[in-house]
């Protein structure tokens, strides 16, 4: 794999495993509203989508007002359970450090709220490694819209031709494609290699160490 000037990472299932916290939060909201028969795997398959889209997929509900109420309830649950139930993957910090030592820019592009990522990163990632976090509250259109990616490129003063986007899901592959930049998939999550290989990519990686 060639060397890039900038590396933009998805967060959930790319840099960190927050699936335990996500499942807890979704299940608390779903069960409160008597949505039963939804498996943990079904919940995990929605990771990377917006909360509204995830709840719509899981429940079949299309009413925007109901979905917005579910989203608000999820955020309250996440304030209690998310950070304590999120762990960086074993290689995350060492890979980010190695890329930074080579002079790369490091950014995170996520549908997760920026403050939630910062809450975890401040205690787990050495200061100065992450240059930029673009969270769900920073954009008008969520991934796979390239809005967050372009915002990151503008703020980092770099361009898409020297940037690699790394993610675990189809949403991430579509985001990179929409932005017109190189994509590398990582198999940390629920999306298979075959699913990711259907999209333009420079690599499908078992873990982040392959970036080095």
TrEMBL record:
Pathway, per record: Organic acid metabolism; glycolate biosynthesis; glycolate from 2-phosphoglycolate: step 1/1
Question: What Pfam families does UniProt report for this protein, alphabetically?
Answer: HAD_2
Which enzyme class, named as a word? hydrolase
Q: List GO molecular-function terms, semicolon-separated.
A: hydrolase activity
The UniProt keywords, alphabetically, are: Hydrolase
Tagged with keyword Hydrolase: yes
Enzyme Commission number(s) of this protein: 3.1.3.18
Catalysed reaction(s)?
A: 2-phosphoglycolate + H2O = glycolate + phosphate
In terms of NCBIfam families, this protein maps to:
HAD-SF-IA-v1
Q: Which family does it belong to?
A: Belongs to the HAD-like hydrolase superfamily. CbbY/CbbZ/Gph/YieH family.
Q: What is this protein called?
A: phosphoglycolate phosphatase
UniProt organism field: Bacteroides gallinaceum
């Amino acid at each position: 794999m060639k060397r890039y000037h900038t590396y933009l990472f998805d967060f959930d299932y790319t840099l960190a495993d927050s699936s335990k916290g996500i499942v807890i939060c979704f299940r608390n909201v779903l069960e409160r509203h008597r949505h039963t028969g939804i498996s943990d795997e079904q919940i995990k398959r929605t990771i990377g989508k917006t909360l509204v889209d995830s709840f719509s997929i899981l429940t079949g509900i299309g009413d925007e007002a109901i979905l917005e109420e579910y989203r608000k309830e999820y955020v309250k649950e996440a304030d209690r359970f998310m950070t304590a139930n999120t762990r960086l993957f074993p290689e995350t910090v060492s890979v980010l450090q190695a890329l930074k030592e080579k002079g790369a820019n490091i950014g995170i592009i996520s549908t997760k709220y920026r403050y939630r990522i910062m809450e975890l990163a401040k205690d787990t990632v050495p200061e100065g490694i992450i240059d930029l976090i673009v969270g769900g509250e920073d954009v008008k259109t969520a991934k796979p819209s390239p809005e967050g990616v372009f915002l990151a490129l503008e703020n980092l003063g770099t361009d898409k031709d020297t940037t690699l986007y790394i993610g675990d899901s189809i949403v991430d592959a579509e985001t990179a494609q929409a932005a017109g930049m190189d994509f590398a998939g990582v198999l940390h999550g629920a999306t298979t290699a075959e699913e990711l290989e259907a999209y333009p990519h420079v690599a499908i990686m078992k873990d982040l160490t392959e970036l080095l």
